[in-house]
Design brief:
hydrolase activity; single chain; Immunoglobulin-like; six-stranded mixed beta sheet; alpha+beta; about 900 residues; Trefoil (Acidic Fibroblast Growth Factor, subunit A); 17 helices; 4 domains; 47 strands; signal; TIM Barrel; about 20% helix; Cellulose-bd_IV
Length: about 900
């Protein structure tokens, strides 16, 4: 007798019907079991276990050797969507290969890409993102997601997850800080980065971020349902970040109990709880308690389950076969993927400066110098390198290569005697007759690492004991870095970066961590060999010196740790200066996941890339020797100093003049910058508005004597507006390869609707009637041609009636807060005299208004016309004391308020919360 398969296993049935059928067969408890990262199996129905979350940011990570591609910011610097798509496709191949070998260990829901715009380069996770421009971020994320998602129309190859929603660019206190997000910044800057991949249907999941946004945890954001799911053509899975659900009651204290918090999360749109690793019992227990207490209904659970099952169905889990079943181990680090890794690394290099030294010619002997010259770094989200072609190795294949690591070799001596390292990698001790030798690595920001010459291993901490058994800084909790604090008589104390403890010496002479600074052992550090001097001597003997400098991805800012400076590590900076003076033919090669600054003036040549993966050295050699034109372009501004940046927690790029869109200074290198080995001419820019679309064309000619690659960039600027407009905004680009003397026409087609900005007066996008400037060139500031065009749109009318406090035009000394726990934004005063401004408020015929306000200590709000200090007072509201979400409707008469005016709402004291003012109440 042939057993008939249930409808949910019929691939010919409509997807919704299949999901309905399976949900209808599940008990409530079985449904709840699907709301954890480790979804429980339903054995009676033949439904297996399922796990969300395989890391795949720039290759498969954490599961063993796999192809390692350049970091995400490096991939974006290629400005090549097809290449980024192919990297995503190769990554999905390797995810599937691992999955077929170990389904439980390598799930098909991949947690990539990261689409947080790179607002501030000090963010510890800068290397994980693509660009400070939200549109370019969206374009690159769409390309990578498309590769991960696969080409089969009905079946997902893997299920890409966008990270991290929303306004997440700080590691400092990331679980408790709230990102202040005015409506224009939300709609014009933060949300657009997510929109493209979701609307295209190539990203099928989203992960909320750890932080709060306008006072509300991102995991509870109403925008998940109101915006993200409105964009998605299919069900969108929302997975929590690791251990974030528990923060709702713990670190964030937003709810009193976990059943309350988890119920709120599910209703807000969270479908999968990443909590307690594979131990789901506690989480599921809280969800069951929420059901029992009436905080959740079974329909709420079913909605979340539908999103979770939709992904599994679309991955082909319940089908007899998928187009990807035959992918196996042969694809992992296969020759094709190695070639792609090399291509991606080569195309990501950005030539920042060049006086003609590059490409290298007539070179027979090169010095490779620097602590990154013969090393490749893995970051937290990279895979395990299957092999490593360093700068030294890559260049050694081209010519005679000498190497100098350029680090100081030192001894450490305490009062009790020299410090020595156990030859077996064990504890460090003081009191030996002969001092041990250590190589000192400066990673910047005051973080140093020490490597024992005896073992070739780095100092680390095992428990509380100093040992020397590690290959370098590594792991989630990096235990191999130290700070140096000055002590009397030229001595120093070592302070362990990870724990904050000091290095002390016990009675047995073993170095151990101690809590008290007074117990720290005072050490004399003597340099027995200067890395700077050694580098300069070698540089003077060779044709060209290549100094490789940069960051360690696990030391100079990373997840949980931001940077305080953009400066190159002082010791590395000193090496660059010394080498440049010893040999004018010096190339500085920067390898970093973020922009850097340095003190040496004009260098002959400067080349940058992100950490480039396993083929880095081959790619570097190809670019240095001119086998390939440097194709990369910067995707974020390189500032001259961190002093040019606003506060790390200031997310209002408009008010703070941040990113290339609003920055008014002269950067070290602008957004979009990158030189070629040839030259290009721009001519004949023509543009016209046709059927609601700006259509423009420009002719690019290679005017040099060798083939080259140009990234043609189009920008616009609205020249008149009701609001502050970006100075420039990227609207399109095209990468062209031209032979000497070859010309090509590059076109832009831009719908006029994309020129819209968010109108706070009506809470929608609007295109104003205004003149615009179209600009085209090589970067955001190297703009070769421009043309003016007029757009016929709207004129924003005066506003009236109910004005929501969050929808103001300008502000001072206020914080955005959650109006209620569930929805809405309000503002709270941070100081006496704080204010918000509403422009062009029509008070014609108005005689009274009503404010919705409250405050723990009460207070006073005054409406002034024209000026927050000296403008005439039109109304005053005494604010009673209330609890956090308590608002009073406070009426007030309008005195002499007829006509259209700019109104300042002034908070006479700190701590008053305002939801809105209704100017139509007395009309």
């Amino acid at each position: 007798m042939i057993m008939q398969q249930p409808p949910f296993r019929d691939p010919a049935a409509p997807l919704r019907d299949r999901i309905d059928d399976l949900i209808g067969r599940l008990t409530l408890d079985e449904k709840v079991g699907l709301l954890h990262q480790y979804q429980a199996p339903v054995e009676r129905l033949g439904v297996g276990a399922f796990r969300t979350g395989t890391e795949a940011l720039h290759g498969l990570a954490w599961l063993g050797p796999a192809t390692v591609f350049p970091q995400a910011v490096g991939l974006a610097s290629t400005w090549d969507c097809d290449l980024v798509r192919r990297v995503g496709e190769a990554t999905s191949d390797e995810v599937l290969a691992f999955h077929h070998k170990d389904p439980a260990g390598a799930g098909l829901n991949v947690w990539a890409p990261v689409v947080n715009p790179l607002r501030d380069p000090r963010w510890g996770r800068n290397e994980e993102g693509y660009s400070e421009d939200p549109w370019l971020t969206s374009v690159m994320a769409t390309a990578y997601s498309r590769g991960l998602r696969g080409s089969a129309p009905e079946i997902l190859k893997t299920a890409p997850t966008l990270k991290h929603f929303l306004a997440y660019n700080n590691e400092t206190e990331r679980c408790t800080t709230s990102s202040n997000l005015p409506p224009r910044v939300l709609h014009e800057y933060e949300l657009p980065a997510f929109r493209g991949p979701i609307e295209e249907g190539v990203a099928v999941a989203v992960m909320p971020s750890y932080n709060l946004v306008n006072g509300r945890p991102a995991h509870l954001s109403p925008l998940i349902g109101q915006v993200l799911r409105a964009w998605a053509p299919d069900d969108l899975l929302v997975v929590s970040d690791a251990y974030a659900p528990g923060n709702l009651t713990a670190l964030q204290g937003y709810h009193d109990t976990l059943p309350e918090a988890y119920a709120h999360a599910v209703k807000a749109g969270l479908d999968s709880f990443t909590q307690d690793d594979d131990r789901s019992e506690a989480t599921l227990g809280h969800l069951r308690a929420a059901l029992a207490q009436g905080l959740l209904a079974e329909e709420d659970v079913e909605t979340a389950v539908r999103h979770a099952l939709s992904i599994r169905f679309r991955l082909g889990e319940f089908d007899p076969a998928t187009p990807y079943d035959d992918i196996n181990d042969n694809v992992v680090n296969c020759p094709e993927h190695q070639a792609l890794a090399r291509e991606a690394a080569r195309r990501s290099f950005v030539l920042l400066d060049n006086d003609g030294l590059l490409p290298l010619r007539d070179v027979s002997r090169i010095a490779v110098i620097g602590q990154l010259g013969d090393a490749l770094m893995e970051d937290w989200y990279s895979g395990t390198l299957p092999y490593a072609v360093t700068a030294r190795a890559g260049l050694a294949e081209r010519c005679v290569t000498e190497f100098c690591e350029a680090v100081d070799r030192v001894t450490l001596t305490a009062d009790a005697g020299p410090v020595t390292a156990d030859p077996a990698g064990g504890p460090l001790t003081v009191g030996a007759a002969e001092p041990g030798l250590f190589d000192l690595f400066d990673w910047g920001g005051g973080a140093y690492a020490l490597r024992s010459l005896t073992t070739g291993r780095f100092l680390s901490v095992d428990g509380l004991t100093l040992v020397n058994d590690q290959p370098g800084p590594n792991g989630w909790e990096v235990r191999q870095t130290f700070r140096m604090e000055e002590r009397p008589r030229g001595t120093l104390a070592l302070r362990h970066v990870s724990t904050g403890c000091y290095v002390g010496a016990g009675d047995d002479g073993v170095l151990r961590l101690v809590d008290d600074a007074d117990q720290a052992v005072w050490l004399a550090m003597d340099v027995v060999r200067s890395g700077t001097d050694e580098a300069a001597r070698l540089a003077a003997e060779v044709d060209v010196a290549v100094v490789v400098v940069g960051d360690h991805p696990l030391v100079n800012g990373r997840e949980t740790e931001d940077r305080m400076t953009l400066a190159l590590a002082p010791a590395q900076d000193a090496v660059v200066r010394a080498v440049r003076r010893a040999n004018p033919r010096t190339v500085m090669v920067i390898t970093s996941g973020y922009p850097l600054t340095w003190t040496e003036g004009e260098l002959p040549a400067v080349l940058w890339s992100a950490h480039g993966g396993q083929e880095y050295g081959h790619a570097l050699a190809e670019v240095l020797f001119g086998d390939a034109d440097p194709e990369g372009r910067l995707t974020q501004t390189w500032y001259r100093s961190e002093q040019e940046l606003p506060d790390l927690l200031d997310y209002d790029i408009i008010a703070s003049d941040a990113t290339y869109q609003y920055f008014r200074g002269v950067p070290l290198h602008p957004f979009g910058h990158g030189l070629s080995y040839t030259t290009f001419d721009y001519a004949d820019l023509r543009g016209a508005l046709i059927d609601g679309e700006l259509q423009a064309r420009v002719t690019i000619t290679n005017t040099g004597d060798r083939p080259g690659v140009e990234v043609v960039q189009f920008y616009t600027h609205q020249q008149r507006s009701r609001v502050k407009q970006p100075l420039r905004r990227l609207r399109g680009f095209e990468k062209v390869r031209l032979e000497p003397g070859e010309s090509r026409t590059v076109a832009l087609r831009l719908p006029v609707a994309e020129l819209a900005f968010w109108d706070v007066t009506r809470s929608r996008f609007v295109v104003e009637s205004a003149p615009h400037q179209l600009m085209v060139g090589r970067s955001a500031t190297d703009l070769r041609l421009s043309a003016r065009f007029e757009v016929e749109g709207e004129t924003v009318p005066p506003q009236s009636g109910l004005l929501r406090a969050a929808d103001h035009d300008e502000y001072d000394a206020i914080t955005f807060v959650d109006e209620t726990r569930v929805d809405g934004d309000a503002v709270r005063s941070d100081a006496e005299g704080a204010w918000i401004l509403f422009r062009q408020v029509d008070l014609t015929g108005g005689v009274a208004c009503v404010a919705e306000a409250g405050g723990a200590e009460g207070g006073m709000i005054t409406i002034r016309r024209g000026d927050p200090l000296y403008g005439p007072a039109l109304a005053t509201f005494p604010v009673p004391r209330t609890d956090r979400y308590g608002y009073h409707s406070i009426p007030a008469s309008l005195d002499g308020a007829d006509g259209v005016h700019d109104l300042y709402v002034v908070f006479e004291n700190e701590g008053v919360t305002l939801a809105g003012i209704d100017f139509g109440a007395g009309a």
